Amino acid sequence: MPIISGVYEVIWDATFQLVLLGSLLIGATSGTLGAFAVLRRRSLLGDALAHAALPGVALAFLWTQSKALPILLLGATVSGVVGVLIIEAIVNYTRIKADAALGIVLSVFFGGGIVLLTHIQRSEVGNQSGLDKFLFGQAASIVRADLYVMCIVSVLVMIAVFLFYKEFKGLIFDAEFLSALGFSPRVVNLLLMGLIVLTVMVGLQAVGVILIAAMLITPAAAARFWTDRLHVMVLVSGILGALCGALGVGLSALAPRIPTGPVMVLVATAAFLVSVLIAPRRGVLARRMRLRANALRENGQHFLRAYLALQTQDKQEVVLADLAGELQLPLYRVRRLAKRLGRDGWVNTHNGACSLTKLGHKEADFVVKSHQLWEYYLVYRSILEEDHVDRPADEVEHILTPEIIEQLETILAEEDIDIVGDIHKAHSGYRRTGRDE
Q1: What DSSP element (H or E) covers 347?
Q2: Dihedral of the CA atoms 306, 309, 314, 316 (nearest 10)?
Q3: Which domains can be identified in the chain, with CATH numbers?
Q4: pLDDT tens-place string over residues 51-72
Q5: Labelling 24: which of 92, 281, 334, 404 has CA 20 to 30 A away?
């Protein structure tokens, strides 16, 4: 009960609500723009721009002697835009690559910002500046006026993403096609980086210069594991960023004296690790299951081919020990393989021997046909010599589908090739080394 009461009080606290809304905006905006940055291979851009914004914050304070967030963000934005222009100039007019240009701007601007902050701290107004919150973030300092500024900037960024989505998509995947349509890739790239500048500026106060890049990159990298479609990735990345921001605020509120920005980054990192593990197509577990299924299928097909190589017209049963020798596998593994194929309805086993069912014969004929047809195609197309095609055919036969086989037959038939007459190879002599089940 005390815990529930404490959570209830935190939720209805006005400061908590302001910080929560601000963090939601920061996470959603960062995640949305981060998807484009990651696919554009500009992951370090957010880090460079955040560091480039630090001298702008310091100069804006020195000029106005004001800590108002709009003024400080304006200075940070100007400094960030200057950093973007310098990066583009270095990349376009020198032989230095983009990653080196990002590193140069990041270190030089950040060094200049630290010098300016040191000067401010030693000046008469240094104790009143509080600009160090832009280094590490201080989400609890968000007030209503700051939230209004964040809302305006976030809405502008989202509208720009909606209006120029197709242009950004073309820039990421085919800049030449974008240019052929009449758009300037350089202008579109500057627009994208300008939006990233605004996004970084919005998150500086809550997350800080050092950690804002994580909120820009991590949700997008996590979203990449869940989809191959850009619009879905942008949506998922924005939602993940918003959830990470909200959870980070909630956890830091429940645990006193823990800063909000680092917790947000840790939550985003946890979301990334979960995506790496359990994503349905790209995740580690899914990949391991897929590799295991492929290995089992290949072993089963090798078993069927070895069976056809050993069977005779007089006796359809094949001793498992003979199959083990043919496959060059231990007998216990061949028994397990036969048992698994029996569950699939392909093999009947009894008294240390096995025979194929109708379904097993159908699958075995398809496997052998796939192997021989692909061998013939390689030789006919003069891709490989006849004595070199067995291994490539063995590697490819496991991924050939009935549709691909039909296409190969159609191609050869259209060129008046007697497939049936030419594909007459003995099933014996095949030696395969099986894989672990």
Answers
A1: strand 347-350
A2: 20
A3: 2-279 (1.10.3470.10), 283-437 (1.10.10.10)
A4: 788 888 888 888 887 777 778 7
A5: 281
